[in-house]
């Protein structure tokens, strides 16, 4: 894809850069909504998307997700985000809302990568699951992680939880990715294995350097991380041949991403 004073997939100007763009869906610390308040207040698309996703996830949770994400630091409600049963849904909700905001501006990736709790948001972005299916999967896992045992003592063990999660995934109807989706388990592009429930329940070691190297070999030169932090893009200089010069990271300054020249470009 040529990109000299061109637009990123028809939406965002990127000055003097060539190559493909990857969105990275990370598994950072659970997001608190207060830290995204400006994003919510400034962009109705983001606010509407986040409200929609939280409402879809609420039936699986003990408390409304938006209430937990927006709770004041230091409160018992805010502390719930330290639990996997709330952290996973919160990361998913934020990432998908960010993705839908970017999509509304015509900012789209050429490839996507999801790590750990970011895997399901990446799968949604790649078209593997509908939003309803992805929310059902994320919500079911949250309920299994946070609720009392539903099938005897064995259901509380990690293998019991994953078995139950796999049974839920088997009821979904995944499709082949419409965008190249890089797997954090194999660090290879995902294909027909999206139809296998066990693919989505596998735990993976942190192999981002391998994933970044493959994306770079596939022509990715522009990177944008979605989620609560920038832990993956900060690693790029140590992962890519050429070091910092090879990592053209898009700043998550949302006003610049919407309309600024150079697409909010910055070094990592």
TrEMBL record:
Top-level division of the source organism's lineage: Bacteria
SUPFAM superfamilies hit by this protein: FabD/lysophospholipase-like
Molecular-function GO term, any one: fatty acid synthase activity
Domain Malonyl-CoA:ACP transacylase (MAT): 24-254
Pfam families: Acyl_transf_1 (PF00698)
GO biological process: fatty acid biosynthetic process
Entries under SMART domains matching the protein: PKS_AT
Record-given protein name: Malonyl-CoA:ACP transacylase (MAT) domain-containing protein
Organism name: Streptomyces filipinensis
């Amino acid at each position: 894809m040529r990109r000299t004073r061109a637009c990123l997939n028809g939406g965002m100007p990127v000055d003097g850069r060539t190559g493909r763009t990857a969105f990275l869906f990370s598994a950072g610390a659970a997001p608190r909504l207060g830290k995204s308040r400006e994003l919510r207040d400034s962009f109705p698309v983001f606010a509407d998307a986040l409200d929609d996703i939280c409402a879809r996830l609420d039936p699986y949770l003990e408390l409304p997700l938006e209430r937990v994400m927006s709770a004041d630091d230091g409160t018992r409600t805010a502390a719930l985000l330290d639990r996997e049963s709330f952290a996973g849904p919160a990361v998913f909700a934020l990432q998908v809302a960010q993705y839908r905001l970017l999509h509304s501006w015509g900012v789209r990736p050429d490839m996507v990568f999801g790590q750990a709790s970011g895997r399901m948001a990446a799968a949604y972005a790649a078209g593997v699951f509908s939003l309803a299916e992805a929310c059902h999967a994320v919500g079911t896992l949250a309920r299994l992680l946070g609720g009392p045992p539903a099938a005897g003592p064995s259901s509380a063990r990690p293998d019991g939880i994953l078995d139950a999660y796999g049974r839920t995934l088997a009821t979904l109807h995944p499709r082949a990715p419409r965008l190249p989706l890089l797997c954090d388990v194999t660090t290879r592009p995902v294909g027909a294995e999206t139809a296998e429930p066990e693919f989505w329940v596998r735990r993976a070691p942190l192999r981002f350097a391998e994933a970044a190297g493959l994306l770079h070999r596939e022509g990715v030169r522009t990177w944008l991380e979605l989620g609560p932090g920038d832990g993956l893009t900060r690693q790029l200089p140590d992962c890519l041949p050429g070091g910092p010069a090879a990592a053209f990271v898009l700043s998550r300054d949302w006003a610049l991403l919407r309309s600024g020249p150079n697409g909010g470009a910055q070094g990592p």
